[in-house]
Amino acid sequence: MRKMTxxxxxxxxxxxxxxxxxxxxxxxxxxxxYQTSCLMCHSGMPQRNAVGEAFKNNGYRMPSGVxxxxxxxxxxxxxxxxxxxxxxxxxxxxxxxxxxxxxxxTGNLISYKAATHTSTGAVSAKKELTYNAPNVASLxxxxxxGEHLTIFGEINGFGGAAxxxxxxxxxxxxxxxxxxxxxxxxxxxxxGLNLALGNSFSNVxxxxxxxxxxxxxxxxxxxxxxxxxVNFTRGETAGYSLTAGTSxxxxxxxxxxxxxxxxxxxxxxxxxxxxxxxxxxSGANGELGNPYTGLDNQIVIGGGLSYAKNSxxxxxxxxxxxxxxxxxxxxxxxESLVYGGDIQGIYKxxxxxxxxxxxxxxxxxxxxxxxxxxxxxxxFAKIAYSDIAYASKKGTYDEHQPTIAxxxxxYLSPAVSLTGTYIxxxxxxxxxxxTNQNTFALAVRASx
Length: 448
Hints:
Elements: E1 2-3, H1 6-13, H2 28-34, H3 50-57, H4 67-70, E2 75-78, H5 81-87, E3 93-96, E4 101-113, E5 116-117, E6 123-125, E7 128-131, E8 136-145, E9 149-156, E10 160-164, E11 172-176, E12 180-190, E13 193-199, E14 226-234, E15 237-247, E16 266-278, E17 287-288, E18 298-308, E19 337-347, E20 350-359, E21 365-376, E22 379-387, E23 403-413, E24 416-425, E25 439-447
Antiparallel strand pairs: 1-17, 2-3, 4-7, 4-8, 4-25, 5-6, 8-9, 9-12, 10-11, 12-13, 13-14, 14-15, 15-16, 16-18, 18-19, 19-20, 20-21, 21-22, 22-23, 23-24, 24-25
């Protein structure tokens, strides 16, 4: 086991291996700013290692007071003392001196859906096997403004395709992916104390776990939409962090009505305590368990809760006449309080995570268990068990439809990754009388 400081980790990573994952969690602009590899902050992207955690907790800046020393593309300073005297106001700031944009392509190369059958054995849906090319582009942006403000995000959904709609004729139609934008603006008051505004990139819903990591409580709690949250972190070794926020109700499928939707539609709290390992603020100042992946041996205990105004309907939009949901949406519609906890552990090449939650009003229990193993530093295998209750689909689907999903990710080059995932339902449906549709997908991600 090797003891390495943050400075030594950064020095090792200052190599000409400029690459970035197409996952939202890795922003290529940081690579240009520090001229370093994404391996400095990520292990099996999108999972963050100890350095990535410290970078996030310090307002997306280098911890331990080394921000200026490790910035390779200097900021353009705006304003000077003469302008300050003339205008009688603070005018000094700085902006990125580089183009803060980057591009990522994603999509399924292979998609497979198994056939489904009715209770009598008749085929209700034939099996499907399709081959594709990456068809969705995402535009990333990010940079530091002055000494305290950091802004980053993505715009995605540029994909589109012409598909044949009539097998007996040459009629085609265009299928467009809706364009969406996600942004996070962070103001750092001091190291470990940040105020964040934005959508989608909340600390609760965006914890850097996915293909390259294991589940935490964010996998079993409703995610905030448009939010304002405060993040407080402490820990030169190990440590703890708290996130408290307020959010407008999710509006992915319903309109926002100004008279009914407010920023306090949803209140949420997320906390975690790292028992041992690298510090949440200092980066790699602890003992690292795996120098090849950058992950340190650790145990992290977390918990969280989300509270929403328990109102399913609001005032209809005057134009669309659609009635929005004020509280939670989707499987949590009609719920007012969801709470849960998780525990994660990492030892050398192995990872395991367990997360569970309970809905107070709907009285539903949700569970996720995931385990991962780095076969090599570039090859990550994972298996997940998931049982998320379908509260809003009673009568059509069974309340519980647990799945097992093995997956494997290969980082073919620093800029390209392949992930194969098979989803298998562990029990048959009863309510609908139609068998489940197991699926397989081989996805590619590439960015620059």
